[in-house]
Design goal:
Distance between the termini: 95 Å
Structural class: alpha+beta
Largest sheet: 13 strands, antiparallel
Strand order of the largest sheet: 16-15-14-13-12-11-25-24-21-20-19-18-17
Helix content: 40-55%
Strand content: 15-25%
Radius of gyration: 35 Å
Length: 1005
Amino acid sequence: MNISNFVKRISISSLLFVFALTLASLFVLPKLQTQYSLKQFLPQDNPLLKKDDNTRQIFQLADSQPFIITAKLSNEGETWFEKKKIEKLERLTDLLKNFPGVKGTLSLANIQGAIDKNEGLSVGPVLKNLPPSAWAQETLSNPLISPTLISKDAQTASVIVNIQSLESHELSQLRENLEVTAKASLPFSQVEIGGTPAVQTDVGVLLKTEIRNFVVLGFVACFLVLALIFSNWSPLIMAFIIILCANILVLAAMALAGYPFSVLSSTIPILTTVDVVSLLIHTLLRVTEERKNQPHLSHAEVVNYTFKALLGPNLFASTTTMIGFLALLTVKVPLIRDYGVTAAAAIILGWVVTTLMIFPLLHFMPEPRAREWAWKKARWALYLFRRSGVWAFLIILICSGLALKGQSLSWSARLFDDLPTNHQVRLSTERIDKELGGMIPLDIQIKGKNEAWNDPKLLAQLDQLSTDLRGYQGVGSVVALPDLVAAANIHHSRLPASRSSTAEIFFLYSLSDNSPLKNFLNADSSNTRVSVRTQDLPGNELEALVKKITAQASARFPDMQVEVTGMGSTIHHLNNELSHELIFGFWQSMAAICLVLMVVFRSLRWALVACIPNLVPPAALLGFLAVSETPIKPSVAIIFSIALGLAFNNTVYLLERLRSIQKRSGARDLEIEKTMWREGNPCLISSMTLLAGFSVFMASYFAMNRIFGFYMLLSMLAGLVGDLVLLPTLLKSCPWLLTSVTWKKERIMATTSALLLAIFVSFSPTPAYAALPTPQQVGQEMSSRLSAKDEQFSVKMKIIEADGSSKERQMRISRLSPSKKEHYMMVRMMKPQDLNGTGLLATLKGDQEEKWIYLPSSKQTRRLTGESGQGGILGSELSTEDFDFNRSEGAQTAVKKEIEIKGKKYFVLESDVSGTSANYSKVVSYVSASDYLPMKAECYDKQGKLLKVIDITGHKKVAANKWRASKITIKNVQNKRATEITMSDVKIDQGLSANKFTPKALAEE
């Protein structure tokens, strides 16, 4: 009785403490801010960003991106070249520059220039120094003005509002004032606010709506799941109280710590909710189970027993999830680091609140009553155990394939494709992108000697460069120093003929109130800047365009230093690097979680086994991202670490329950069936809750969050397969993974395939940025290392059938290739003993392949007939054509990209061999970038479908600059067969002749 009273007092104190803390937190919530910026995704102290800063300092460019007000005339046929319209545009431009936070404004009405008139030179606003009849002619042909300040059809004008560095709330207030004022000043036009600051402010406003919707929808989704599981109301009431308190406390903690809501941290309420509900489901179902198993215990005793049994597993499950987020702390991007901290804190705070509240509430509220289907034993697991080996093998095979496919991820993201479709800021951004010169700034800085850019010849070269760049697809506008010089037109020619004339024009611009010359020429005239604005192209296309622009500028000025900076040259490059780091940062999370579980289970073996099923989510993500060609962004790449942390939840509960059962029963055999019967349904149900919670992201305004939600759902489904299908079936097939049992030969393949999954997932698809060699260069380098007219070597061959069975052979092989379309191969069997002396001869002349076999028992040589070119050597997946290392020279080959795998770089070559190969239409080869040795080949059949994957490893030097692989693995993806070949005792260029490769010679040896 005394113990019961003590427990009640502790329970009441715990509840009161959490309630008081929650009420106090309500007063802190108004301090929580929302924030969005493209710079949030950029790493700190990056060399590329430092170059950008240097360019801005040299040419006195604004630190902040401007607001861009666009005004499109409502009536067709109207243009802005009317005096009344320009007067209103001028008044608006002058009015806006006086707003708090505005550094200056620029529009068609106040753009400065130097005009040569009959009455003399005039410096000042261009339109004021020209008659209205000349406005269209002088502005639409001037790159300084069109298309940046007025579209080519003269129907859309813009006002560029340069701003100071402002806080989020100041930026939002300024945006609202700009919009109201512009619409009132230009009622005859359709006014929209665009530019990067407008994106930031609008997204910030939408984030608040997102957060509210996420909280409400998350509550509804989780409560629907709870209502399906439990038949009484007490679980729903407890869930409501705990979820509410946990979310308030988490948000208050963010406000107190100064962490604002961003696009990423808007997911925090959902993470908190699903984490809490997952803990609740495991706890409440365990209470129901213990009530069934121990009916003699009182309600309080059942609660206390459950508390002791689940305190550790609940903590460990939350810890693994927390580690997944803490792995983000290694990233140099403040936004992502902050998200890692807030999400990890939310997870652990959710566990604390749930632990402090659920068990006290269980003492004072009616016992939860689970519906029959929820608390019954998971009999469905029996179907898995009937074919456990098949299930494990299929899952590992599929995941390995997806992981391999994941090598070809898409790096074609756009910057502004996440904005809500048909939203005002999205429409304005698209209009600027298409009609007003593009959205993405790119700066070309050309450095020479002092006063270099006073030279008319250099100006003419620069003018030609600008003309060339304007013709490039994807370039919206180009403005350079010659455009400013030409705009003056004081010498009745586009460009001056002497250095003195150039100096005169520069002097004229210096007389202007706000000379644009300072943005294009530094003080000593040694550096000039070409301002390029591109459209919002996919990342890979923009990267190619930047390379092309850089090459063109360098070719025009070979004796000068050319640097390309600006958002266009940095943002995608940095995002791709960051995304790659995030995708494969899950290995850090895996290692950290493995260490924690090693302490929890007090066994390295158990910790490693726990990692196997959790390779399924990253493999699935890699494969589906590649198949769907989803453009990779940091907001997508971040899923890998998050998904890994969540995936371990069920693993922890299953293995902890298995360990508990093993201890109680003392059985030598693994009680995996019993574990699944008892823990299968709770794990399945908690996963359903996670799925329901994250499904609310599919209703997001932002494509980014919808993609995030979809791939989170995919990763959780993959995690469910890994935990509830792969883990139990793998342990059923290979119980020795966790216990000491007699080794059986037939289990080798199941174990090896599990290990292969880890190897395949670790392949790193890295985007290439360096210049690639030509196919001819690669081919020549490969040929110098591999080509040989003849060779002899010993081989150990292992042929693996589709069902996993295998057979081994040892043989001596001789090969001769006197020409590109003439190949001979002779194979002499050595082992097994009953095949000793058996010989095989294969010849390939053009498209005609012939084979003979020598049978020593009857001393007969027989010709083998059948479908030409379709069979492999000795029934393996290796054909004579696969030995032709020079095949690519006779095909149309292109070097597609450079990738990095495990720290080593490889060139990816694609060869069209449809006209030169009897078996293949295309071969994709992976060649080491350091030593030009082939490492892998993917062979496609005549229908264009993948047929074989050939892995080549263990290269060794066998002669002067001649190399051969020690091992070749051929996998036929269509018939599921494989061949492993180990080569030794290699001799090349021994002077073999064709008369050694005849049916007669086959019988003579």
